[in-house]
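Lab notebook, design round three. We kept the backbone fixed and only want residue identities now. Task for the bench partner: fill in a sequence for the structure below.
Input structure tokens:
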């Protein structure tokens, strides 16, 4: 099994780590996702439809924007659920 499939399998059937709602990609949501990525490397993020209207974009652009802002890779997108991956830093500042 490939490394990517193993990472996706780790979080696919669990509950989402973070929900993005009507506040969109606010600073607090980005900070929480950043913290979760640092702690878990792979996380599951659920996006509510109202987040798209706040950011004024469609799902594909929203997911790309989310990954760019967090310097993370999108491993999988299923409906409104996104699985993100970012390697842990070797040291904390």
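Proposed sequence:
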């Amino acid at each position: 099994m490939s490394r990517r499939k193993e990472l996706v399998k780790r979080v696919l059937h669990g509950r989402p780590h973070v929900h993005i709602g009507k506040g969109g990609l606010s600073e607090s949501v980005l900070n929480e996702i950043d913290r979760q990525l640092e702690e878990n490397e792979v996380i599951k993020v659920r996006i509510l439809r109202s987040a798209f209207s706040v950011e004024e974009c469609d799902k594909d652009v929203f997911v790309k924007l989310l990954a760019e802002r967090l310097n993370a890779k999108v491993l999988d997108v299923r409906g409104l659920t996104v699985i993100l991956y970012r390697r842990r830093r070797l040291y904390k500042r």
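Keep this in mind before ordering anything: Residues 3-85 form a domain with the Translation Initiation Factor IF3 fold (CATH 3.30.110.60).
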